[in-house]
Write a structure and sequence with these properties.
- There is one protein chain.
- The protein has 300 residues and is of the alpha/beta class.
- Helix content is 39%, strand content 21%.
- The protein has a single domain, classed as NAD(P)-binding Rossmann-like Domain (Rossmann fold), CATH 3.40.50.
- The structure holds NADP nicotinamide-adenine-dinucleotide phosphate (NAP).
- The site of NADP nicotinamide-adenine-dinucleotide phosphate has 24 residues, from helix 1, helix 3 and strand 10.
């Protein structure tokens, strides 16, 4: 398969391209700058709505990962860009695929997140669960909905709703690792909120399956079957690093972070279940938090 990836230089894109090439697929990158390698790059600019559709037509599938990172201070302009970069980029790709029809890629894997479900306490969340409230839930809804032109054109569209991706020195673990290594790991708020996480290798294996298996369609939760509470996460991470973690940051401090980011990114409780993947016989290589963290630090 020839697979075109947006956001290919990000955390998931880098690992995914490696896995796909290792499995014998060809990969190309949608780039927001001038094309340097025409045989493996296609130009686009989601902000101005331009894309080289002839270049896109050379591929069999698109994996769409691009979007402004949700990390950073949640000011109004940051939040606007988080939303706009996802909705505009997805709509541009989906309508391009729809216009190309049979002459273009017939599969679109377009990222989303378990943020779709909002703050749900102890509720178990599978793909049929309703959407929640809050900024990230709204972003995920609009992000997924923006792929509608491709769905309407009969293109197979898969939305991996990703949990927190665990990868050594990158993404979520990057800022936490030095703190935990110094024994400054802390339980956040009550520590009772559920965290849905997944090792990067399981993310890329799941995405490869989405590209290769025609019966994987629609929304697919990509988080391990064993979510943990924040308290368990803190204890497990500290113990994998051989450090103590006695600290606790009170909820009222976190709740004051701008734009509701403390509530939505730190105190939020999401207990997602990967029903779709398990029903398709997918086996997680790292189903537990300790196995995922040990793998991160062993191979990192
Ligand atoms: N990592 C996680 O824990 C996690 C969890 C849930 C959902 N997700 C979602 O999965 C996707 C991939 O995640 P990731 O961790 O690989 O993200 P990442 O490392 O932040 O990479 C995202 C890529 O998006 C592109 N990008 C950045 N700002 C942009 C903007 N303003 N407009 C358009 N494109 C922009 C960049 O690629 P180029 O410079 O190549 O264009 C960047 O490398 C993201 O949409 C993310 O929200 C990730």
């Amino acid at each position: 398969m020839k697979v075109l990836i947006s956001g290919s230089h990000g955390l998931i894109g880098t690992h995914l391209a490696k896995r796909l090439r290792h499995a014998g697929h060809e990969t190309g990158a949608l780039v927001r700058r001038e094309v340097r390698y025409p045989d493996r790059e296609v130009a686009w600019d989601p902000a101005s709505g331009t894309i080289d559709s002839e270049g896109v037509a050379q591929y069999d599938a698109v994996v769409h990962l691009a979007g402004k990172s949700i990390a950073g201070l949640w000011t109004r302009s940051h939040m606007d860009e988080v939303l706009r970069s996802r909705v505009d980029g997805t709509h541009l790709i989906a309508s391009t695929l729809a216009l190309l029809g049979d002459d273009g890629p017939r599969v679109l894997v377009s990222a989303s997140g378990v943020g779709y479900y909002g703050d749900r306490g102890d509720e178990s969340l599978d793909e049929s669960s309703s959407t929640g409230n809050g900024f990230l839930a709204m972003v995920c809804q609009k992000w997924e909905a923006a792929a509608q032109p491709a769905r309407d054109a009969g293109i197979r569209v898969v939305h991996p709703r990703l949990g927190i991706v665990l990868s050594h020195g990158e993404g979520f673990l990057a800022p936490l690792t030095p703190l935990f290594a110094l024994g400054l790991g802390a339980t956040l708020g009550s520590g009772r909120q559920w965290m849905s996480y997944v090792h990067i290798d399981d993310v890329t294996r799941a995405m490869q399956a989405m590209l290769e298996q025609d019966d994987l369609d629609g929304v697919v939760n990509v988080a391990t079957p064993e979510p943990v509470t924040n308290r368990t996460f803190t204890k497990t991470f500290a113990s994998v690093l051989g450090r103590p973690a006695f600290l606790r940051i009170p909820e009222f401090l976190l709740a004051r972070l701008p734009g509701g980011m403390g509530q939505e990114m730190i105190l939020v409780s999401q207990k997602a279940q990967p029903k779709g993947l398990l029903d398709h016989g997918f086996e997680f290589e790292y189903p537990t938090l300790s196995s995922a963290l040990v793998a991160c630090f062993k191979h990192g």
